[in-house]
Design brief:
Layout (H helix, E strand, L loop, with lengths): L9 H19 L7 H17 L5 H7 L3 H11 L4 H21 L2 H19 L13 H4 L14
Helix pairs in contact: 1-2, 1-3, 1-4, 1-5, 1-6, 2-3, 2-6
């Protein structure tokens, strides 16, 4: 297990390890349609985090990304299909993580929060745009800052 998560209960640990999946589905489905480019990009990002994440986050991503593709597809299948309903469920899960972030070592929490925001931005850029312009649509732009999660650096 990841030592930084030791202060959390089992269910809180599971929530934290699910954050990359929730962020991926939230952003990919922001425009009402979860398209293949966004799903593929989320999977690529999950795999790249295993080697390209901040050093302190690699153990977290090793565990979070175990069967990531299956978890992502299962989340897409099990979450509400309506955009607003799905966003509401995911937003509540992300809000629940605020209590967990407070229990984590500050440096780790800050790095994880930044990493999730980077992931959100990169997924949003995956589909859309022409030659890299306007790659993030309006609906995605409202969500990529993950404002439902309080910045642990400011806590």
């Amino acid at each position: 297990m990841i030592s930084e998560l030791d202060s959390l209960t089992q269910s809180e640990q599971e929530l934290m390890l699910s954050l990359p999946v929730y962020v991926a589905v939230l952003i990919a489905g922001a425009d009402g349609e979860i398209d293949n480019k966004e799903v593929k990009r989320a999977i690529q990002l999950a795999h790249s985090k295993l080697t390209h994440a901040r050093r302190d986050l690699i153990p977290f991503y090793n565990e979070a990304n175990e069967s990531f593709e299956d978890k992502l597809k299962m989340a897409i299948a099990n979450l509400p299909s309506g955009t607003k309903e799905r966003q509401n469920v995911i937003t509540e899960k992300l809000k629940e993580s605020n209590a967990c972030f407070k229990k984590l070592p500050k440096k780790f929490a800050t790095e994880l929060y930044s990493s999730l925001k980077e992931m959100a931005k990169q997924i949003a850029e995956a589909s859309g745009g022409v030659f890299g312009y306007m790659a993030i649509d309006y609906e995605e732009s409202k969500l990529i800052d993950l404002k439902m999660i309080k910045d642990p650096a400011l806590a």
